[in-house]
Amino acid sequence: MGSLGVVGIMTAAVAAAAIALFFLVGPERVWALAGPADLGDVDFATLARRETPNDALACPPGLCRAPSDLTPPAYAMGARALAALFDRAVAAEPALERVGGDDGAPSRRYVQRSRLLRFPDTVVVRFLDLPDGRATLALYSRAQLGRSDFGVNLARIRRWLDRLDRAAAG
User: Fold this and answer.
1) Does the global pTM surpass 0.85?
2) Beta bridge partners of 139
3) Peptide bond preceding 61 in cis form (omega within 30 of 0)
4) CB 91 within 8 A of CB 124
5) What is the pLDDT of residues 53-67, one digit of tens each?
6) What is the CATH number for 126?
7) If we measure between CA atoms, which residue out of 163, 26, 145, 6 comes closest to residue 87?
8) Are 123 and 134 in contact (CB under 8 A)?
9) Going by DSSP bridges, is the β-strand pair 55-58/96-102 parallel, antiparallel, or unpaired?
């Protein structure tokens, strides 16, 4: 066997060992080396979007200075009722942990992890009463790691709004 063959086998062995170690230690512990999974709260009024394509924002008109990917609808209920409905709508989301928020505000903060590699994303949700007795919400979802999220954060916000719409209609 030539030296290139030996180098190839050694490279494959090192890669296999690294992958095994990654799963043995646990992805969540490995990603914790980059900092806490929960990236914290945001102020929607002063929020500055990332320069990298690994976040998504749904914001009602007049609340956010940052450009919004989606405009969330208004719902025929107050903010507290909308928050309770939202809790039920997203309860079935996989690998979702509520890490903060204030039921009195009301707001929520979640960390949701990807299925296999357990990449953490932080999602902040703020519920807002509107003058006509209705309410709306703002959502900001951002990745802890990487430069791109391949559209995962935007897909999450769309999915969560769709679930909320179905819950409100049903």
Assistant:
1) no
2) 58, 125
3) no
4) no
5) 999 999 999 999 999
6) 3.30.310.80
7) 163
8) no
9) unpaired
